[in-house]
Each structure stands twice: as structure tokens, then as C-alpha cells.
Specification:
The chain has 12 helices and 9 strands. The chain is an alpha/beta fold. It has a 7-stranded parallel sheet with strand order 1-4-5-6-7-8-9.
Length: 339
């Protein structure tokens, strides 16, 4: 089988076709770079090239969607300490009514559009055609980052107010999505941390989550080819989220049900995972990484599979383990002719 470009390899995996090698990528936050979109773009492209990843998941800092809404963010600027909430933007029910609609290049959002623009320009210089996806959050996840745990009590007591705020967050996110499409992204990494039974019932998530999630997908599903559904947390509503109109699913498959083999029975979408980011990837040996990649491919099969972490890798991850993952996909993920 002839060698594929990175885009060809990713597209084949997304469409359930034969690949010359199972695609892979690893991502983590770079808090010493993520306040400057040009520096972050250069760092992420360099990181991809160093470990020969097949795609880039852009890594804007996780609170980029709430800073403009009034959340105060504490920024450390070190390699290991990502920004954290210093003060929530919602401290009273009436403050939800001030959550409006921003254009896609407003404030901190605009810096993340610049990130996409810079990465697009840098990748145009590469000989290979390299996909990259922008990270977006479900409207409910953004609301939780903005308000903290009080969100879940507010949506029960004041559902109409929360619905209006969620609709405005949705429209802001769609504006952001459109600007990223104009910047040249291949798709989106849609992340939700609220679709877990530890936080909500399925009925509550249908009302306050799914209703707005699907508006996001409708805004880009026909405009982009690489759209990942990231299901964060434990006790998740995996089957419900797997039915969303993305074409790739990411979750903590090494320590949260279902595992790769079980997920393959639930959905025919491309599965992204195989590496335990909170344990094996950071604390294991290259031999452990090798085993994880082998097991993932054995459970899921070579088609409709990409190897990556269940969520962001830890900054303490030893460099040798990044190389070990790349060697392992070459070892176990290569196409082997039956003749």
C-alpha cells in the first residue's frame, strides 16, 4: 500500500477505510505559551513535527470562553501550571442575564482565532497536508466554567434564565466556529464535561445540554471533515453523545467505560484513544506504551481508529514516551498485505 499524506490517513480512518498506518497524535497544554497565539502556534507545529503526529489538536487555554464574560483568570505562565479561575463570573442569579452574544473575534476569543490563522499559515509551508482542529466547549460546559457548581442549582430553580444564557453562549460559540472555519481549520474538538450522571440526569442533559450542543454541530458538520466528540469524565452518557453528528469519539477509554472493544460494538465512528494519559503515559515505561498501543489496535481493529490520549497529556510526561507511542503505531498499526 502506498504511503499516505497525513490528511489522507486521517480521512481514511474517519471513513472506515484501509490506512497505510493507524494515525496518531498526542496533545497537552502549554501554559508558558498559550497567552500569545503566535508563540503557541509555533510551539504546537514544532511539537507535531518533532514527534511526527498525524494531526494537531489546538490547545487554547481551557478558560478562553469565559474570560470575556467576566470570569477572573489567574495566569501563572509556567510550563506546568495552566490558568485557573480566580473568581467566577456569575455570583448571583441576576448576573446570568448579562451573558450576551459576542462576535467570533471579540476579546480572548479573537486570540484563539489568531491561533488558527497562525497554524494555518505555518502548515501551508509543510510538504505534507496536515489536519488541525480547534477546541470548542459545549455551551453547558462554558456555563459551568463561568459559574462553577452553582450552575446545577440555578438551572433547577431558574430554568428560563439559564436557557437564555445558554442560547447566548451557543450563538457566541457559533460565531467563533465560523471565524475558525474562515481561518482554515479541518474541524473541531467538541468537549463536554457535563454529560455525566455524577452531575446531571439524562433528562436534564437533554434539556440543558443536547439542545445547544446540536446547534453547534449543525453550524459546522457540513463545512469541516474532522469533527471529534470528546466525552469528559466518569459515568458518562456515552451512547447519547456517540449519536451526535461528529465522526470521531474521544474519551478516557483506559479508565472509564466503555473500553475500546465495547465502544466498537456501540458505534461505527472512528475511535480516538488507547493511551492512559493520567497514569501510563506519564509514569509508564516505553514498554508500557508499546503494550497500550498494541492492545488498543487489537480491541478496536486498524480501521476507524486513531491512537491518542484519553484527554490532555500531563506536562511531566517524559519525552521518551512520546517517541514510544510513535514507534508503537509504526510497529502495530502498519498495513500488512494478505498476499
Amino acid at each position: 500500500m502506498k504511503m499516505m499524506t497525513k490528511r489522507e490517513r486521517v480521512e481514511a480512518a474517519l471513513n472506515g477505510k484501509e490506512v497505510d498506518r493507524v494515525p496518531h497524535s498526542i496533545w497537552l497544554h502549554f501554559p508558558h505559551k498559550d497567552q500569545d497565539p503566535r508563540s503557541l502556534a509555533e510551539h504546537q507545529v514544532g511539537f507535531m513535527k518533532k514527534y511526527d503526529h498525524d494531526f494537531i489538536k489546538l490547545m487554547p487555554f481551557g478558560l478562553y470562553g469565559v474570560q470575556d464574560y467576566g470570569a477572573k483568570v489567574k495566569i501563572f505562565g509556567t510550563k506546568t501550571e495552566p490558568p485557573i479561575i480566580d473568581q467566577y463570573g456569575i455570583k448571583d442569579i441576576k448576573e446570568w442575564e448579562r451573558v450576551g452574544v459576542f462576535n467570533g473575534t471579540y476579546g480572548t476569543l479573537g486570540k484563539q482565532v489568531q491561533l488558527s490563522q497562525h497554524v494555518s499559515r505555518l502548515l501551508q509551508k509543510e510538504k505534507d497536508d496536515i489536519p488541525f482542529v480547534q477546541t470548542i466547549f459545549s455551551p453547558l460546559t462554558t456555563a459551568e466554567k463561568l459559574a462553577g457548581p452553582r450552575l446545577y442549582e440555578d438551572l433547577k430553580q431558574y430554568p428560563n434564565i439559564i436557557h437564555q444564557a445558554l442560547q447566548n453562549i451557543t450563538e457566541t460559540t457559533i460565531n467563533f466556529i465560523k471565524e475558525n472555519i474562515n481561518a482554515g481549520v479541518s474541524g473541531f474538538f467538541f468537549a463536554t464535561k457535563c454529560s455525566t450522571l455524577d452531575l446531571m440526569t439524562k433528562e436534564e442533559y437533554t434539556e440543558f445540554g443536547t439542545k445547544y450542543d446540536l446547534q453547534l454541530f449543525e453550524s459546522y458538520k457540513s463545512e469541516t471533515f474532522f469533527n471529534i466528540i470528546h466525552i469528559h469524565g466518569e459515568n458518562t452518557m456515552f451512547e447519547e453523545l456517540a449519536a451526535y453528528p461528529g465522526n470521531c469519539i474521544s474519551w478516557h477509554d483506559r479508565w472509564v467505560a466503555p473500553d475500546m472493544g465495547e465502544a466498537r460494538k456501540i458505534t461505527d465512528k472512528c475511535l480516538l484513544g488507547g493511551l492512559n494519559e493520567r497514569d501510563t503515559l506519564v509514569n509508564g515505561t516505553p514498554e508500557d506504551i508499546d503494550t497500550h498501543v498494541m492492545e488498543a489496535i487489537e480491541m478496536a481493529g486498524r480501521k476507524s481508529l486513531m491512537i491518542g490520549p484519553g484527554c490532555v497529556a500531563k506536562p511531566e510526561t517524559p519525552e521518551i514516551n512520546y517517541f514510544a507511542a510513535r514507534v508503537a503505531v509504526e510497529k502495530y498499526g502498519r498495513y500488512k498485505s494478505k498476499t
